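Researcher: Good morning. I'm working through a list of sequences from a screen, and I'd like to move beyond sequence-only analysis. For each chain I'm collecting a predicted structure so we can compare shapes side by side. This is the next one on the list. No need for commentary yet; just the structure.
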Amino acid sequence: MNLKQLSKELNLSISTISKALRDSAEISIATKKKVQEKAKELNYHANPFASNLRNQKSNTIAVIIPAIANNFFSSAINGAESFAQEKDYHVLIYQTHEALEKEISVSKHLQNGRVDGIMISLSSETSDTSHLAALKDKGIPLVFFDRVAENIDAPKITVDDYESSYIGTEHLIKNGCTKIAFLSISNVLSISNNRKRGYLDALKAHNLIEDERYIVDCNYDETANKLKIKNLLTSANKPNGLFASVEELAISTYEICNEINLNIPLDLKIVSFSNLQTASLLNPSLTTITQPAYEIGREAASVLFKLIENKEIDPTSQNIELKSKLIIRDSSTAKTVNNIASTKKDLAQILLG
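Model: Good morning. Structure tokens for this chain:
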């Protein structure tokens, strides 16, 4: 609904309607009431980005993320802020706490022209993206990063989730794992589905059979996730390898292994997507697929400012994919009982001279 349509509905001039909505003294109380009631009925909202209002800038962008405590998102924010500061812009940060309802609320709040552009990474519950399409329809520059809405025509900055997952799974296979579990965080997010696809294709390429018992759908209920992981690791046919799609699930796995006396990597080898700075300090140190989070945030901000400044964007830059890196540590190395026994024997001989 726009002014032109509203004008047609009320059989009034656009100028009259515009003044009535601004509560102008030039318009009678009766006409203002009539216009305002009709606007509410038809869900009309003024577009602050239209016509001459387009030139009014807030010098602020918004970054909407699932959780700031996540190492990936905190690094991405740093990247976005560094670029925004170069443009003399402020950054407003909104957390959805992985809730679709919160994401919708924030989106509606930002429709009033509070910011000049928006960077967003979807919540794990987001399947319906109509609230985000509404932002774009209002002319608000929008860029997705990491967790993206495939059905909305807007720039998307992502990482090589499929390829990285394939490489991580293959690493476990090369280190002797034949029964590999996959811990997923969402059935609706593109990143989760791409990581799962990479895992399954790696199994297939190495002639390992897909087993639904090893694919565990988790969410952001830590207690429920730990119970699922514990049931998996205490089952009769428990896995000897595990791929965690996010670092939270890897940490939960460490805690469960400690609780049930399962040795990492002797009994279970683990690889996880993670930007955890303390991954090397865990016992054993965690093998990670580390994403270029800072660069993703900075690249997303760069593209967003091109939209804000009405610069022409090369179609090939609409979807940018950056590369992640597999960092091999102790949680996935091919240690065996014989290796450990030999090491102990060698140490004993050294000590005894």
